[in-house]
Amino acid sequence: MKKGEVLFSYETDKASFEEESPAEGVVLASFYNEGDEVPVLENMMVIGDPGEDISSMIAESPKAEHNEEFGEPESDATADEKDSRSVPLQKSTAVEESPAVNGEMLISPRARKLAEKEALDVSQITGTGPKGRVIEKDVLNLLQNRPRMTPLARKIASEQGTQPQAAGTGLAGTAKAADLAAPVNTIYGTDYEVRKISNIRKLIAKSMHASLQNSAQLTHHLGADARRILDLRKKAKAALEEGILTVNITLNDMVCFAVVKALKKYPNVNTHFMGDSVRYFHKVHLGLAVDTERGLMVPVIRNADDLSITGLAGQFKEVAASCRNGSVNPDILSPEAGTFTVSNLGNYGVEMFTPVINLPQSAILGVNTIVPRPKDLGDGVYAFVPFIGLSLTYDHRSLDGGEATRFLKQIATEIENLEIEW
User: Fold this and answer.
1) Which residue ranges form the domains of the chain, and what is each CATH number?
2) Distances (CA, A) of 6 to 1, 2, 19, 20, 29
3) DSSP readout, 181-202?
4) CA-based nearest residue to 316, from 243, 270, 394, 259
5) 396 a catalytic residue
6) What residues does 342 pair with on adjacent strands?
7) Is the pLDDT of residue 102 over 60?
8) Cβ atoms of residues 145 and 167 within 8 Å
9) In 3D, which of 391, 406, 414 has the Cα closest to residue 220?
10) Which of these is catalytic: 36, 231, 306, 400?
């Protein structure tokens, strides 16, 4: 291993990075495996010279602490016990073999012994140990959700592979022999697979749940006449083909440009609600939701109100590309970095939706697809014209309904009267 050579890649929040070797040598120990969640500032591995004594480092390693946490201190185990911790589960009358990543299930001795004693089908357990290994804690968690069993019921369950129903008919819900269900057909019994969610999905889920749980969110829907921006879009495409423009200006860029203009006229929306105070921003830091293979990301364009339409479009495309290739700066992904967010689902044909606020921001705009709607053109003349749907979700603790409605109407007005130069 040479100094500067890439050791591994890791992700923090929603960005990924590569770690380079700080010194020349060989990898003598690695404390974590691929896909593990690692606490910040923990040691990952030991690099040194071949044959170098690293016993003191291993004793203090996170891996050693992890083993002790589950009651299996590595220092007290014999060589045979070490090997048995990761051996495949063998078939028995009580526990059936279950396929895992390498074709066989991994189970610790304690977990196997407890499962056999309680007549548990461990093939239904998702292991939380290293490499998906079933550990004693996993078996105990399953037992908590299963009714207690009489000695006779436990014996029959062990011999016949049966399991108790959701609730037993015995005293205090104890499952009797008559409460045991027939064994599940192994061919059709499991028609699903369990996959661990990625770190990004965990962060998104936590953020979305916290947003709905900790704010009073309400959504207003309104349509804006899209004839003006559709005409500007045609002109922008022509200018790009003629070489007058160097960046492709999309409908979404135009909507975001109109949003910035509206935010300057409604500064109460360009805020963070802090619980007992409101943070007012003098500049617009606009976030744009970007769909990537790794999950939803919301990069922020700082000082968006200082940019022209071409400058805004160029920066949007740059940060979106960074999100998709995993090289985005984590600092611009924080909800605190933005003052307002735009989420566009119009390209997918969505006509109306309810976006979720990026707390502590006070509001978020959802942009929908363009659909034809009847409109009064004057003198009793009606015609179908294209309308773009706008969905504003706002925190009712920070904004009143009237002000939120007027702001949404202002966005529509800016879209219908947009003037841009390039």
Assistant:
1) 6-69 (no CATH), 199-416 (3.30.559.10)
2) 9, 9, 6, 4, 16
3) EPPPPTTTS------PPPHHHH
4) 259
5) yes
6) 288, 365
7) no
8) no
9) 391
10) 400
Quote the tokens at residue 72: 């299996």
Does residue 192 surpass a pLDDT of 60? yes
Residue of 31 and 191 predicted with greater confidence: 31
**Long-range contacts from 182-185, C-beta under 8 angstroms, 24+ separation:** none
Q: Whats the size of the chain, residue-wise?
A: 422
For strand 278-280 and strand 271-273, is the pairing parallel, antiparallel, or unpaired?
A: antiparallel
Assign residue 110 a region (left: φ > 0; alpha: ψ between -120 and 50; beta: otherwise).
Answer: alpha
- Lowest mean pLDDT segment, chosen from 18-32, 113-127, 363-377: 113-127
Residue 395 pLDDT > 70, yes or no?
yes
Where is average pLDDT lowest: 201-215, 222-236, 368-382, 387-401? Answer: 201-215
Contact 325, 299 (CB under 8 A): no
More confident residue, 244 or 39: 244
d(CA 43, CA 65): 12
For residue 366, count other CB atoms closer than 10 A to its CB. Answer: 24
Residue-wise burial string across 270-288, b where 16 or more C-beta atoms lie within 10 A, e elsewhere: bbbbeeeeeeeeeebbbbb
Residue 79 burial (CB < 10 Å; 0-12/13-18/19+)? exposed
Max avg pLDDT among 67-76, 155-164, 292-301: 292-301
Report the pLDDT averaged over residues 89-105: 43
SS3 331: helix
Residues near 94 by beta carbon (within 8 Å), at least 6 away in sequence: 115, 116, 119, 120, 158, 161
Catalytic residue among 66, 220, 221, 396: 396
Distance from C-alpha of 308 to C-alpha of 253, rounded to nearest angstrom: 11
Average pLDDT over residues 259-285: 97
Type and span of the H or E element at 387? strand 381-395
Give the Cα separation of 141 and 158 in Å (integer): 19
Q: How many CB atoms lie within 10 A of CB 406?
A: 14
400 classed as catalytic: yes
Which has the higher per-residue pLDDT, 227 or 35?
227
Q: Where are the alpha helices (DSSP H) in 91-135?
A: 109-117
Over residues 317-364, the pLDDT tens digits come to 999 999 998 888 888 999 899 999 999 999 999 999 999 999 999 999
